[in-house]
Write a structure and sequence with these properties.
By secondary structure, the protein is of the alpha+beta class. The chain is 45% helix and 15% strand. Helix 1 packs antiparallel against helix 2.
Length: 191
């Protein structure tokens, strides 16, 4: 059975994700996506390196590595995630005159155990909008790290250089995403 509540250990990679509570959306307008990323940076960038993300109307995905530091521990990082979600929820609820939980309780985190899983997770995250039929290509989805990576746009919290190095170069990064989508399409065919 897959563990979605792995302890967040320093130096390890995780696929972090969560879904809206019920049938709600966590993003209604473009400004919500941007604000969510701003809050992520404010609350979590000192604790994690981020390599990939994708924000969808009712859920999100991040690929992170917990920083190695003696200054904080797993409990502090879990509290930082909680503060991040609470801060975003409070702002969202105030803006849209809502109340209560926005996210499902206890965000999920899956420990990445090997290099193949690391690459596959990055690809999966970027291809999520295609999988859910929002767009035909990851390049068309504005609220993921895919375009920043292929344009090699590093910022203070998104590590584009390192993720490109995992795939050797940008061309192979793009090729691997295309191959994943082609394999996904082939597997959708009903016989």
């Amino acid at each position: 059975m897959t563990k979605y509540r792995s302890k967040l250990d320093s130096g390890k990679y995780y696929h972090v994700f969560n879904h809206a509570f019920g049938k709600e959306n966590i993003f209604i307008e473009d400004k919500n996506y941007l604000y969510f990323l701003k809050k992520f940076e404010a609350f979590l960038s000192i604790y994690v390196d981020t390599f990939a993300y994708c924000l969808m109307p009712n859920h999100f995905h991040f690929l992170i590595r917990v920083n190695e530091s003696d200054q904080y521990n797993s409990n502090q990082l879990s509290r930082a995630f909680k503060s991040f979600f609470t801060s975003y929820t409070n702002s969202f609820n105030k803006t849209y005159n809502k109340w209560g939980s926005l996210f499902q309780p206890r965000f999920k985190r899956l420990l990445i155990e090997n290099n193949e899983q690391l690459l596959t997770t990055a690809i999966y995250i970027h291809c999520n909008p295609v999988k859910h039929s929002f767009v035909d290509s990851p390049i068309e989805w504005e609220f993921s790290s895919y375009n920043s990576i292929i344009e090699n746009k590093s910022n203070t919290w998104l590590n584009t250089k390192e993720i490109i190095s995992w795939f050797d170069n940008i061309e192979n990064f793009m090729y691997c995403h295309e191959k994943y989508l082609n394999d996904l399409e082939i597997n959708r065919i009903d016989y």
